[in-house]
Write a structure and sequence with these properties.
The complex is a heterodimer of chains A (208) and B (99). Chain A has 208 residues and is mainly alpha-helical. Helices cover 75% and strands 9% of the residues of chain A. In chain A, 27% of the residues are buried. Chain B is 52% helix and 22% strand. The chains are: A mainly alpha (208), B alpha/beta (99).
């Protein structure tokens, strides 16, 4: 809405003043929310960096271990052992609220298992396969942690972007336009008042 | 909820050893359809993929996977995930904080 498209009336002026007040308080609140979200984001960012490097290291390690197991035992033996596993890691998704942003909290059950609970025969397999299985269990634990933290970061970033857009729209579009309209109405009302005074003076002159 | 793994035979065997059941062996041609079917599975909470496999997917699907929260996609190998996040951080905050 352009500044000159409003009706230059007193009621419109009061309405616009109310809107400006509301926009300004909204702008202040959103700015505070944005700053809070950025603070939260900074805290999680360091965790995310650590988790990512740990995850990469765990993947390297697991890859090496399974490579050794395959070299010593043969690919088919490793695959057949893998098919024998019965217990599946289960995850539970809960939600957590960070300044209005719902982020997931992932709980996992039974990823790391003692050797005799894995489901394959201990005597039939070598320690290389056990080591590979252990390394992959550690990797899966790290993946679950990384999934939680990286999702939290993604959601926080989405919300930071959204809030930033709102703050900028209010600061650079809504409030300046409303202020412009208010100034226009004020000037127009003053002008109308002057016109009226002049008209009255003319009428008075004629009457005399 | 469960974890799911998609990739070639080499990549997925280890995850079977860790006890994950939803393991999908897929070659390059089947990759896209397998990933799409996993995205529609409400039981999957985390999808594990290799970075190189993710790069083979069409751009729209890649974008969908990066944005997806349920399931969350975790990529391994290379520095792909961090660079995805890095771009997102640059876009949202305006400064490259991933250093």
């Amino acid at each position: 809405m352009g500044a000159t498209e409003v009706k230059p009336t007193r009621s419109e002026l009061i309405e616009i003043k109310k809107k400006i007040k509301l926009s300004e308080s909204g702008h202040k609140l959103l700015k505070m929310k944005r700053d809070g979200l950025i603070l939260e984001f900074f805290e999680i960012l360091n965790q995310a960096k650590d988790v990512r490097s740990e995850l990469d290291a765990a993947y390297e390690e697991a890859n090496t271990k399974i490579g050794i197991a395959k070299a010593v035992e043969g690919t088919i033996s490793v695959k057949s052992t893998a098919f024998a596993l019965s217990d599946e890691p289960d995850i539970e998704l809960e939600s957590n609220n960070i300044m209005g942003v719902v982020v997931p909290k992932i709980k996992s059950t039974s990823v790391s298992k003692p050797m005799n609970k894995r489901g394959y025969g201990i005597l039939g397999t070598s320690s290389y396969i056990d080591e590979a299985a252990e390394a992959y269990e550690i990797l899966v634990e790290k993946i679950i942690l990384a999934a939680e933290i990286e999702t939290t970061i993604k959601k926080l970033l989405d919300d930071i972007e959204k809030t930033k857009r709102r703050v900028n729209a209010l600061e650079f579009k809504v409030i300046p336009e409303l202020t412009e309209s208010m100034t226009f109405i004020k000037l127009r009302l003053e002008e109308m008042e002057r016109e009226n005074t002049f008209r009255l003076k003319k009428i008075k002159d004629k009457a005399e | 909820m469960e974890l799911a793994v998609v990739g070639n035979g080499e990549f997925v065997t280890g995850f079977r050893l860790a006890g994950i059941r939803k393991v999908h062996e897929a070659n390059d041609n089947e990759l896209e359809s397998t990933v799409r079917s996993i995205l529609e599975d409400p039981k999957v909470g985390i999808l594990i993929m290799h970075e190189n496999d993710l790069k083979k997917l069409p751009e729209i699907l890649k974008l969908k996977l990066n944005e997806s929260v349920e399931p969350t996609v975790v990529t391994l190998g290379g520095t792909g995930e961090s660079s995805n996040l890095r771009d997102k951080i640059k876009q949202s905050v305006g400064v490259d904080l991933w250093k």
